[in-house]
Amino acid sequence: MTETENRVDMDEIVSLCKRRGFIFQSSEIYGGLAGAWDYGPLGVEMKNNIKRAWWRTIVQERDDMVGMDAAILMHPQVWVASGHVETFADPMVDCRNCQGRFRADEIEENRCPNCDAVGQFTEARMFNLLFKTFAGPVEDEAGVVYLRPETAQGMFVNFENVLTSTRKKLPFGMAQIGKSFRNEVNPRHFIFRTREFEQMEIEFFVRPEDAPRWHEYWMQERLRWYTDLGVRPEMLRLTAHAQADLAHYAAACSDVEYLFPMGWLELEGIANRRDFDLQQHSKESGVTLSYFDEEKGEHVVPFIIEPSAGVDRPLLAFIVDAYRQEEVRGEKRVLLKLDPRLAPIKAAVLPLSRNEKLVPTAREVWSMLRPHFMTSYDDAQSIGRRYRRQDEIGTPFCVTVDFDTLEDKAVTIRERDSMEQVRVPVDGLVEALRERLPPC
Ligand code: GAP
């Protein structure tokens, strides 16, 4: 697929996300804060669904993985050992004409992306992306701590704790979901590059000689995760980093890329981090981080394969990929064809009208569903418009309560994509929806 074939307009996605309560600009009433976004009532549901789907595949369903939840604030020496204090920096230039500040590696033809001035840039300077703050009441060097720029280090420094408490054998992995922070020079593309974001990271520990095989395995596994959740395979690709572009810790890295409206961009990186981190933390902390291989009778410092995904970028990709505009009986229908596991609302209960006989029954049906699924209730405007509203936010099923319901104690389930309708008894409604909704 060529770049021009991704027909979704990013402005439409941003507008839908705001209008329907997926994503808002942070601190909007104060003019917003660059690089920070807030997830609204639907956004938080979808984000939780993505995290749950990842945790289920990566931790719950595997026998070689355990979960973690480390603190965001860590000992400052962690970031010295990891190399972030020294090398976690992007080249930055200023435009002399408009005073805009940009990442030097993103400037094309020496032209300012803000004011179009050509050749007006200052020399590139390296800019460290770590957010710095102070722990405790005294704001001096001794109190400096950093907001973590990746969740990974919380797993490396707990290697010994996890190994001893779980008695895992190589190969095994740790998985963690949490916030990370980077003082990006140029946050952009909506939630694609922000200063505060979430990550879902795996650190998979293997014998050094097995690292290339596991690297290949995880690339395929991670691609499969996206397609299993409905992303069209032709919108995904793996791109290997050139040797010169590798991060300081990596022996090899490939990105899972998605064809966003602005082009092919990284969703997730899958790196072979070698034994860099365990060696560095052993050296800096004085605590040896290694594994005793009982079969071979030897100590080994494992290599690490790291599939490192964001949460926000995949969320954007899932929405972009699901977005459709169709014509139904001469009318435009906007549809989010989300996998039901990701859809924020699983079922919406809609009385045919606000008729006083229908509403109490419809509300009873809604109460019956609430303990089982994330649901909503809508009785404003015509039934057709309410179906469209649910289509637009990706709700896989609408449950309609009509005048026949009062007689036959049955409701209609309408399926989002096909718009097909089936009649089911109210008594069997929970079961009927359960059959249609994969567990998440
Ligand atoms: N531990 C390795 C690591 O953090 P990375 O490629 O820098 O690797 C992994 O980040 C993923 O985190 C990216 O693929 C992306 O999905 C997400 N990510 C990184 N920086 C981000 C940013 N500024 N805004 C949103 N997501 C970001």
Features:
single chain, alpha+beta, globular, 13 helices, five-stranded mixed sheet, 440 residues
In short:
With 440 residues, the chain is of the alpha+beta class. It is built from 13 helices and 23 strands. The chain is globular, with a radius of gyration of 25 Å.
Radius of gyration: 25 Å
Distance between the termini: 31 Å
Q: What general form does the structure show?
A: globular
Helix/strand structural class: alpha+beta
Largest sheet, strands/sense/barrel: 7 strands, mixed
Uncertain runs: 1-6
* Ligands: glycyl-adenosine-5'-phosphate
Q: What share of residues are in beta strands?
A: 25-35%
Helix content: 25-40%
Estimate the mean pLDDT confidence: 95
Topology, element by element:
Elements: H1 10-19, E1 23-25, E2 37-39, H2 41-60, E3 65-68, H3 76-81, H4 84-87, E4 89-94, E5 101-103, E6 125-128, E7 131-134, E8 144-147, H5 152-156, H6 159-166, E9 172-181, E10 196-206, H7 211-228, E11 236-240, E12 252-260, E13 263-272, H8 276-285, E14 291-293, E15 298-300, E16 303-310, H9 312-322, E17 323-328, E18 331-336, E19 347-351, H10 358-369, E20 375-377, H11 383-392, E21 397-401, H12 403-408, E22 410-415, E23 421-425, H13 429-436
Parallel strand pairs: 3-9, 19-20, 19-21
Antiparallel strand pairs: 1-2, 4-5, 4-6, 7-8, 9-10, 10-16, 11-12, 12-13, 13-16, 14-15, 17-18, 21-22, 22-23
The structure holds glycyl-adenosine-5'-phosphate.
